[in-house]
Amino acid sequence: MVSLPRPVEIVNKSVRLAGLAVTRNIVFGPGPRDRLDIYRPAGSAGLPPAGWPVIVFFYGGSWQWGNRADYQFFAALLAKKGFVVAVPDYRLYPEVKFPAFLNDCAAAVAFMMKNAGDHGGDAGQVFLAGHSAGAYNAVSLALNAAFLQAQGSSPDALAGVIGLCGPYDFLPIRDAVIKDIFSPPTDIRLTQPITFAREGTPPMFLAHGGADLTVLPRNTTALAARLRQAGSVVETRIYPKLGHIGLLLAALPYLSWRAPVLKDCLAFIAGCRAGEHNAARSEISAPVPGLKG
Questions:
Q1: Distance in angstroms (rounded) separating the CA atoms of residues 65 and 189
Q2: Please, which residues have CB within 8 angstroms of residue 267's CB and are 6 or more apart in sequence?
Q3: Does residue 284 have a pLDDT over 50?
């Protein structure tokens, strides 16, 4: 019997790798899943003096499934825009529970910070991105400094974070498997990214589909509100007609008519690189004519 290709294989084939250099199975740790793939522009045409900015992308899958090869399409789309894109695997449940998968993700980020230059990347311009559980991973590393500090790095070294349809504030946990994944911490609130919202976090772009029934959009709006209250920089986008998977697929050129997801992500990164998100508050440094008080 001839097996039919999986839908993700069709999606991956729709984004050509022409013009890109791809390096697979790079070891960043001792475990069998401590591997990542790197996508970058081929050659040196357009290469900035310090190297291409770097994006570490974490895939979703409820912390139970996923493979870096399945997200070739998204990595390739970003690499074609002038980025070095790393897609790491990380250990999954039931092999591990919280916070082991975050330790793996932190190791991957620290590896890229140390070795970006070997792949044409700028170690001073490292962005994290993720979808669903991967967005949880990315945002957790940016908010809870302990994970990157354990790897000899810091969230302060990050240029920005992109979270797509992420669960950031999902207590109480009702699903039995998810409850087991995040048990048993002394305080269950320590599993929630929103708990670590603080001033001085890396700039964040949080996007969600308004029709997402897998991870409710309130996760994005709640975290964004808490970050703004703390004085950190955050942009949000809610795309009304997109669902959980549809938001990620809207990055594909032939589905971009549904919502400008990729365009908005790239605009956020450009703003970070231009220094537009360095301060959360506007300041008037010179008198404004006609303004008193």
A1: 24
A2: none
A3: no
Give, as one character, the DSSP assignment of residue 44. Answer: S
Sign of CA dihedral 151, 157, 159, 163: positive
- The string of pLDDT tens digits covering residues 9-21 is 999 999 999 999 9
Q: Among residues 146, 110, 150, which one has the least CA distance to residue 128?
A: 110
Q: Which helix (H) or strand (E) holds 226?
A: helix 218-230
How many other β-carbons are positioned within 10 Å of the β-carbon of residue 282? 5
Calpha distance 15→251 (Å, rounded)? 11
Question: Which residues have a Cβ under 8 Å from the Cβ of 246 and sit 6 or more positions away?
Answer: 209, 211, 258
Residues 6+ apart with CB under 8 A from 264: 205, 207, 237
pLDDT of 288 over the 70 cut = no
Q: Is the confidence at residue 286, as pLDDT, over 50? A: no
d(CA 274, CA 217): 29
Query: Rg for the chain (alpha carbons), in Å?
Result: 19
- Reported pTM: 0.93
Which DSSP helix (H) or strand (E) runs through 162?
Answer: strand 158-164
Q: Which of 171, 192, 204, 179 is nearest to 277 (CA)?
A: 204
Contact 33, 91 (CB under 8 A): yes
Q: What is the pLDDT, as a whole number, of residue 120?
A: 96
45 Cβ neighbours under 8 A, 6+ residues apart: none
pLDDT tens, residue by residue, 96-141: 999 999 999 999 999 999 999 999 999 999 999 999 999 999 999 9
Token reading at 186: 């002394």
Cβ(236)–Cβ(220) below 8 Å: yes
Architecture of domain 7-273: 3-Layer(aba) Sandwich (3.40)
